[in-house]
């Protein structure tokens, strides 16, 4: 560490980029240290991403899984929240460049970058408008509007062919998000909507879950994978494995067996993308600045203590980092955030630094449908309703803020009892594609820069 | 009525345009009649508009005040819900033309048009991007994002002048929506956010409530108007009466006394529009088709039984209709919806039709801030906390669907106890203006028409 960092005449400045699981946990763990923390995020909220699929299918409201970052740090005076987009790093001068209304230069003594990942179309970005992904709340609103809009249009379809395409929902990617999304769409069609439509039988809707891998939930043990697949099929989901997307347009998806063979067309007006991970572009930026590299998914290679080579004062954590043996899950980011706070504490107090970061696998879980799940907790494999209740307990325990927890439980109970969904809005705005929104926002920015 | 209408060989067809208070209540009241009801709305949800300001200020989630129309009629088999935009009426052929994915022709025997109203900029539509209104959920999301975004930018302001403009919120229009909105912004600034910002004192925010009229809440009795104004001032709202907006741009608003005098500039980065009512364009369309007229606000003149001249089979109700002595409130639309159902029942059963529609004033209410309100209920004037509890009781009683009611109460209680707001999202999409969204949606439609 440089002299500045240990200069006792002013407090050590920690800048954290990203208010996800890693960034928030690091900031929380710095509470009792004599440091000034600045937490920068492009959004004003934290996002409990594992429950995003519940917003996308109308169970929870956006606010229930996305507390304001300021609220999380209301009682922690050494944290300042700054809403803005990070544009670049100057590792030599130890400055982060961010922009909101103005360009901002934020100086740091220690930098923690926890900017996460987004979905990747594996080089087929032109699929994006017709196969929206599931990473942000805007994404979830968009997916919800698309699903419900398809049922509305099916009610008005003029041919059987059109009706079938509107009632076919293809989810690409059979990881936890894809599995949970497909299960919830099946329940929406088979139970929630069945008494509400007149011209169509919503139970006839076809939900296809597609993955190039030979099984669902690849990181889970085989027994649980089989169980999950069985539960999905019981819900009426067509699980199509060993099959990859080769083209997607507004009328459907072309699918080819991974082992080779003929390309097949699935006519479908709703294709949802739950595959592929691409690290935040900030990972590449940091790699270039520090002379290290990224992997195929754009994830940064870091040292064993999660710092950059040559820059021990810069940490990178969470999904934007490549860590062999560590899965891209919330739990990993949380443990890394805590670890980094410990390293900073040791440096400030001049204790020996804690040893190399080691990930402790506390378990993995995924829900399937209404009250079923598969879970591996400390080596024990669980399925069915028991797994669901453990899933619910763990997620509620981690939901930040007591109000959110209480409400989410009330909402889940109500959803199970009433077999309905409360958040069933199709908003004109959320039917816009990500690209349309991005273009308009860029246009607004240009305008306001010109007039200011 | 024509022969068709009374032809017993098939059921009488009622088409209702608009799923607001009037349309929904009419459809519900037709439950036990041998009629087939088609309810057309451009949205898939009903909207409990009197609580829209709570969405705009982060108290309730959109889903809590907007149940899906299909859910409302889940148990009523004679109602079919159709999502689409009504483009025109053919009163001679008794056909409604609507469009979603396709052009649709919907035949009726009886037509009820209840398409409501939107806000009006009194001929200054160029103010729209800088002074968003409050009529739809998209509007409310936009207002919420703008308010919270202003506080975020104030945290980063580089001059005192910039900070002051960001912390000035001008609400134009001191009817119930304007009063409630101004009160909630004041509470947001003075209580909710005060511990969450570091670089600014949010309590210094200035909330201006502007109206050309000489008092707030013009339809209320004088005693209640004075009380409301007093409560608003106690919350720290600058109530500026007898003052009209003469220009609005992105940096502020020009204001002139109604009695004449000098124009004054209020630098403000957030101006919200809660003034002016403009009937749905369908009112003008109906007027042209039936040879009747509209008033200055574009509201249709109807006969005493709410039918159109020459077309006794066409009813128009709610905010799109000009009815001397009847205020533009939910209660009036509800009573009209019920009345029209009674007329239809009488015609079908060949009973004498009920006499001319007469509005019964059951009372008016408005909340001011956290737990205060003014109310006039059956002639009794109430103020303060008692009025608030009556307000809450009545609104909860009218919230459609038991689940919503239970949740809304839990949410309000929690909001009051925790002094926080759960729905505090700034979404990039919702920062787009109404016009930007409309243009992009139009562009999408054009594209899909070309490719289909």
From TrEMBL, chains A, B:
Domain (FAD/NAD(P)-binding) ranges: 13-337
Protein name: NADH:ubiquinone reductase (non-electrogenic)
Keyword presence, Ribonucleoprotein: no
GO MF term list: oxidoreductase activity
E.C. code: 1.6.5.9
Keywords carried by this UniProt record: FAD, Flavoprotein, NAD, Oxidoreductase
Class of the enzyme per the UniProt entry, highest EC level: oxidoreductase
Catalytic reactions on record: a quinone + NADH + H(+) = a quinol + NAD(+)
Family matches, as SUPFAM superfamilies: FAD/NAD(P)-binding domain
PANTHER family in UniProt: EXTERNAL NADH-UBIQUINONE OXIDOREDUCTASE 1, MITOCHONDRIAL-RELATED (PTHR43706:SF47), NADH DEHYDROGENASE (PTHR43706)
Family to which the UniProt record says this protein belongs: Belongs to the NADH dehydrogenase family.
């Amino acid at each position: 560490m440089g002299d500045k960092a240990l200069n006792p005449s002013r407090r050590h400045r920690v800048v954290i980029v990203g208010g996800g699981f890693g960034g928030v946990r690091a900031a929380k763990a710095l509470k009792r240290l004599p440091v000034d923390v600045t937490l920068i995020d492009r959004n004003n909220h934290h996002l409990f991403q594992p429950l995003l699929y519940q917003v996308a299918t109308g169970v929870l409201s956006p606010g229930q899984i996305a507390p304001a970052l300021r609220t999380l740090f209301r009682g922690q005076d050494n944290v300042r929240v700054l809403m803005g987009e990070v544009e670049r790093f100057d590792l030599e001068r130890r400055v982060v460049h961010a922009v909101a209304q103005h360009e901002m230069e934020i100086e740091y003594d220690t930098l923690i970058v926890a900017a996460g990942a987004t979905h990747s179309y594996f080089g087929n970005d032109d699929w994006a408008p017709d196969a929206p992904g599931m990473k942000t709340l805007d994404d979830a609103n968009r997916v919800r509007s698309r699903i419900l809009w398809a049922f509305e249009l099916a009610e008005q379809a003029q041919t059987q062919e059109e009706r079938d395409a509107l009632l076919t929902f293809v989810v690409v990617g059979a990881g936890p998000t894809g599995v949970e999304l497909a299960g919830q769409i099946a329940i929406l069609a088979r139970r929630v909507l069945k008494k509400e439509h007149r011209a169509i039988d919503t139970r006839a809707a076809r939900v296809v879950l597609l993955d190039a891998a030979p099984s669902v939930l690849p990181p889970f043990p085989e027994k649980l994978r089989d169980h999950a697949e069985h539960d999905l099929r019981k819900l009426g989901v067509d699980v199509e494995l060993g099959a990859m997307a080769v083209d997607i347009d507004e009328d459907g998806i072309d699918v080819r067996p991974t082992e080779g063979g003929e390309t097949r067309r699935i006519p479908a007006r709703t294709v949802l993308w739950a595959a592929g991970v691409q690290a935040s572009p900030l990972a590449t930026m940091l790699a270039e600045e520090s002379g290290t590299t990224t992997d195929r998914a754009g994830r940064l290679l870091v040292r064993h203590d999660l710092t950059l080579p040559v820059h021990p004062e810069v940490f990178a954590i969470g999904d934007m980092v490549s860590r062999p043996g560590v899965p891209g899950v919330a739990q990993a980011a949380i443990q890394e955030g805590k670890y980094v706070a410990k390293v900073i504490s040791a440096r400030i107090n001049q204790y020996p630094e804690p040893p190399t970061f080691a990930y402790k696998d506390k378990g993995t879980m995924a829900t399937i449908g209404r009250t079923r799940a598969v879970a591996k907790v400390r080596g024990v494999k669980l399925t069915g309703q028991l797994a669901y209740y453990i899933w619910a307990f763990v997620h509620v325990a981690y939901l930040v803020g007591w109000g959110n927890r209480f409400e989410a439980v009330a909402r889940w109970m109500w959803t199970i009892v009433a077999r309905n969904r409360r958040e069933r809005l199709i908003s004109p705005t959320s039917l816009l594609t990500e690209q349309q929104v991005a273009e308009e926002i860029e246009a607004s920015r240009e305008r306001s820069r010109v007039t200011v």
